[in-house]
Amino acid sequence: MTPLERANNVSDLRLMARRRLPRPIFDYIDGGADDEVSLRRNVAAFADYELIPDVLNDVTEIRTETSIFGQPSRWPLMLSPTGLTRMFHGQAELAVAGAAAHHGLLYSLSTMGTTRLEDLAQAFAGPKVFQIYIFKDRGLTAEFVARCRAAGFHGLALTVDTPVAGNRERDRVSGLSMPPKLTVRSLLSFLRHPGWSVPAMTGSKFDLANVSHKVDALASGPMSLFDYIGGQFDRSIGWREVEWLAREWDGPLAIKGVMTPEDAHRSIASGATGVMISNHGGRQLDGAPAPVDQIEAVREAVGDAADVICDGGIRRGSDVVKALALGATACSIGRPYLYGLAAGGEPGVNRVLTILRAEFNRTLTLAGINDIAALSLRHVHNRLRSPSHAH
Ligand SMILES: Cc1cc2nc3c(=O)[nH]c(=O)nc-3n(C[C@H](O)[C@H](O)[C@H](O)COP(=O)(O)O)c2cc1C
Questions:
Q1: Ligand 1 closest atom vs CA 312
Q2: How much distance in Å is there from the Cα of 187 to the middle of ligand 1?
Q3: What's the family (predicted)?
Q4: Which residue has the higher pLDDT, 166 or 130?
């Protein structure tokens, strides 16, 4: 058995990633904002939901196929956009997208990714979404729309929870900067992880490949990522800009970072086709509610047609079953695949997706569900809201 095969769950892969990465890099993936309350709640909230099984249902065959952003997906999971992926493994986004394609899942590339969207599209035929921001320079956003269309991206996810960078204190303590550089504090940790450090320091150039043509200063100067975000992100944007983007793109568009039924409704009214309920994995507004707790109300607000994606906190396949029962179209994961990537490149991401898929199918089987379309509120119960006998 290889070490990856010995990993039983996402938690095991997280520990493998922690061993493999220098501490500042691991903390960049693993950490959240302020006191990391939302980060912990995102995961813990799933445990408050009980699954109510149906027994004596024929579960020899289980139907899990669905459609997200209008694209087919083998089961209701997608891979969230994450920036700076080359920092975690030399194969970067191509490894993640490759594993997503192997598993028949949608992949989303971040604006802050380290692979050009055209290169990603060329290497990866599967369904793909580009995560976009509305920058101060609207021309840059419009340029992304045109590039995504030309490259054959199927959808856009507009991230709206990042008017400023969150206060990630682990990164401040470790002195993490962009591109990663050695500080006295982190030097020892880098030296202790030559398996990561040598390729990272000598390998292909580390770059925000999709925006670097506009911000040369970033590649050459001492500017940190935080300065960059502060400079380009537009705090003045509102719903008018969503309407503008929906018109420009004229295709599947999800607003990522929506938390309330009101904003979900407004997203659809402004031309989006879906929402990603998300607090950016607890990396932005600490204290924001757990996405899973918002699903039911959001679904009610947007009706049946819109995509409602629960993004954040998923660590088990059973979490996806709970989210679907509450009304989600699908779930989306960030850290779980990054742990796999750091632990072992594309095979590591494959391992995570295999584990989650097996957990998902086993949970459905045990819950007596032979078609995900049959999942409903009847199958899930929040033990904090009412005693289960009242169900
Ligand atoms: C290392 C890292 C980088 C991220 N970069 C981005 C990004 O560039 N754009 C974005 O919209 N979200 C980004 N996210 C948030 C993810 O898309 C997603 O919302 C979050 O990871 C979901 O929570 P989870 O990690 O618990 O699955 C990032 C998350 C992580 C962990």
A1: 23
A2: 26
A3: Belongs to the FMN-dependent alpha-hydroxy acid dehydrogenase family.
A4: 130
Residue nearest to atom 6 of ligand 1 (CA): 82
Domain extent, residue 252, equals 3-390
Tell how far the Cα of 282 is from the centroid of ligand 1, in angstroms. 9
Kindly report the pTM of this predicted structure.
0.94
pLDDT at 385: 85
Query: Which of 102, 75, 78 is closest to 347 using CA atoms?
Result: 102
Angstrom distance (rounded) from CA 289 to CA 80: 19
Nearest CA to ligand 1 atom 21: 334
| Whether residue 154 lies in the annotated active site | no
| Nearest-angstrom CA–CA distance, 352 and 103 | 11
The answer to whether 352 touches 339, Cβ cutoff 8 Å, is yes
Contact yes or no for 129/69 (Cβ under 8 A): yes
Q: How high is the mean pLDDT of the chain?
A: 91
Using 50, 70 and 90 to split pLDDT, how confident is the model at 178?
A: low
Catalytic residue, chosen from 280, 379, 381, 391, is: 280
CA separation, residue 119 to residues 100, 147, 152, 316, 341 (Å) = 16, 11, 11, 32, 19
Cβ neighbours of 308 (radius 10 Å) = 26
Give the whole-angstrom CA distance, residue 174 versus residue 224. Answer: 14
Domain with 59 in it: what CATH number?
3.20.20.70
What's the domain count of the chain? 1
Select from 280, 310, 337, 356 the residue to mutate for testing ligand 1; criterion: most ligand atoms less than 8 Å from CB: 280
Closest residue (by CA) to atom 4 of ligand 1? 82
Q: Which two three-digit tokens encode residue 29?
A: 């993936």
- Confirm if 185 and 288 have CB atoms less than 8 A apart: no
Residue type, 19: R
